[in-house]
Amino acid sequence: MAQINVTINGRSFRMACDDGEEERLLGLAERFDGWINELRGAFGEIGDQRLTVMAGIMATDQLVELEKKVARLEEELATAKDASSAARDSLGRRETETASAIETAAKKIEVLAESLTKSLKAD
């Protein structure tokens, strides 16, 4: 397990993470620290705890909105898959119907050709 130091709100915190996850954790800490700095710029010095709680709420809000978006996109994907499946089924039926119509037409053409051949031979 790796150990790294992250800085949030001017304070250093030693954290453990899985090997290879160090850069990811540093990036997450930087992003969280950015939210705290953004809030400090908007509200001034309102206390470290309050800034941290507000930044946590901001992160949670973004997560909830992204979860809603993912759910909507999953619904759209399921609808698109259903429509695609229905279109494939319809296409398969049309191909079968077209093949049957072509076969029927070919048989009629053969009958006409035989009839014409017999008629020409009779003359």
Q: Which spans of ≥5 residues are poorly predicted at pLDDT below 50?
A: none
What is the rounded distance between the termini? 100 Å
Specify the oligomeric state: single chain
Task: Determine the strand fraction and express it as a percent band.
Answer: 5-15%
* Global morphology: rod-shaped
Helicity, as a percent range: over 70%
Side by side, the strands of the main sheet go 1-2
What's the number of extended β-strand segments? Answer: 2
Number of continuous helical runs: 2
User: How can the largest sheet be summarized?
Assistant: 2 strands, antiparallel
Order of helices and strands: EEHH
Secondary structure class reads mainly alpha
Mean of pLDDT: 94
Rg for CA atoms: 35 Å
Structure description:
There is one protein chain. This protein is mainly alpha-helical. Helices cover 79% and strands 11% of the residues. The chain has two helices and two strands. The chain has helices at residues 22-43, 48-122; strands at residues 2-8, 11-17. A hairpin with a 2-residue loop joins strand 1 and strand 2.
Can you give me a brief rundown of this structure?
79% of the residues lie in helices and 11% in strands. The chain is mainly alpha-helical.
Topology summary:
Blueprint: E1 2-8, E2 11-17, H1 22-43, H2 48-122
Antiparallel strand pairs: 1-2
Helix pairs in contact: 1-2
Essential attributes:
single chain; 123 residues; mainly alpha; two-stranded antiparallel ribbon
